[in-house]
Amino acid sequence: MNTCLSCGTPSVAPVIDFGRHALCNRFLETATATEETVPLGMGACHRCGVVQILEPSSPESLKPHVPWITCTEPEGHLDDLAATIARLPGLPAEATICGVSSKDDSLLRRLEYLRPFRTWRIDPNKDLGIQDPCAGIETMQAHLTPARAEAMVSRQGLSDIVIARHVFEHASSPTTFAMALKQLVTSGGYVVIEVPDCQKALDAFDYTTIWEEHSLYLTPPTFHRVLQEQGFTVQHSLCIPYALENSLIAITAVASGSQTSCLDEQLVSVDVEV
Ligand SMILES: [Zn+2]
Fold first, then answer.
1. From ligand 1's centre to the CA of 48, what distance in Å?
2. Phi first, then psi: what are they for 161, rounded to 5°?
3. Is 104 in contact with 121 (CB distance < 8 Å)?
4. Is residue 95 scored above 80 in pLDDT?
5. Comparing C-alpha atoms, which of 158, 178, 166 is closest to residue 138?
6. Strand partners, 250
7. 46 C-alpha to center of ligand 1: Å?
């Protein structure tokens, strides 16, 4: 049994081993150049149910060697999501909103349009010490540690809302990443996390979904379980349908106390009116 990336117990049973595979972002300069490969295998946790990669590759090995690779995420739902976030109860008049990565810029712009929010976004160089222009999410997620989050808070103050779109599924240590997110937010604030919904891919045995850069392959129930394991309380839950893969969004509050196990708790799946 492998140690679960979500609940930390040795409960992950291997399900399928694909052997070693070439990195998706590694474009060879010549036809005879050596192809780097990484192990690719999937498992499922018998305790918390989370499907996960068995042997996450290091951020250093995943880092692209070229600076021109871009990625886009589905954005058709962002107007509605911004409106929902802007109406969250308990926000101060000029709430501070922090975006974790460049994937959050377009949502931050929408929020600025709706209300006089103060927005800021983590700077990979200044805030995380990332100098390599080729570095992407694989590097950013590893550099966002609780210590760096604390240093950011000393410069920016705590944020009333922290947004992390399409990063959590890359986390090589979801616990460390979640701790950093919680470090950034005020007591009574919100953390908004969005991930791809792998339910359709798992149902269809779509092996092309497996990607060395995604450590977690979440579905609506396991997404909530991971969040609960990491000490978040889901207050508003959304599943946005898209043709390829749905987007799962959770607007969460930081649970009081330390991490809580979800195993004996009823799954939070009911939207809270805001
Ligand atoms: Zn687990």
1. 4
2. -135, 135
3. yes
4. yes
5. 166
6. 193, 237
7. 7
The alpha carbon of 193 and the centre of ligand 1 are apart by a number of angstroms equal to 19
Edge-to-edge strand order for the sheet containing 159-165?
Answer: 118-121, 96-99, 159-165, 185-196, 247-254, 232-240
The pLDDT score that the predictor gives to residue 272 is 29
Distance from the CA of 260 to the center of ligand 1, in angstroms?
13
- Ligand 1 centroid, distance to 128 Cα (angstroms): 29
Angle at 99 between CA 218 and CA 131, to 5 degrees: 100
Q: Does the pLDDT value for residue 37 go beyond 50?
A: yes
The rounded mean pLDDT for the chain is 90
**Domain locations in the chain as residue ranges:** 71-254
**What pLDDT is recorded for position 69?**
86
- Give 256: exposed, middle or buried? Use CB within 10 Å, 0-12, 13-18, 19+: exposed
Overall average pLDDT of the 129-152 stretch: 94
Q: The domain 71-254 is classified under which CATH number: 1.10.1760.20, 3.40.1410.10, 3.40.50.150, 3.10.20.90?
A: 3.40.50.150
Query: Rounded to an integer, what is the distance from CA 31 to the centroid of its chain?
Result: 35
In terms of pLDDT, which residue wins out, 248 or 64?
Answer: 248
Protein residues near ligand 1, an ion, with CB under 5 A:
4, 6-7, 45, 47-48
What's the confidence (pLDDT) of residue 256? 61
- pLDDT of residue 264 exceeding 60, the answer is no
- Which range of 73-77, 123-127, 241-245, 253-257 scores highest in mean pLDDT? It is 123-127
Q: How far is the CA of 80 from the centre of ligand 1 (A)?
A: 32
d(CA 229, CA 6): 7
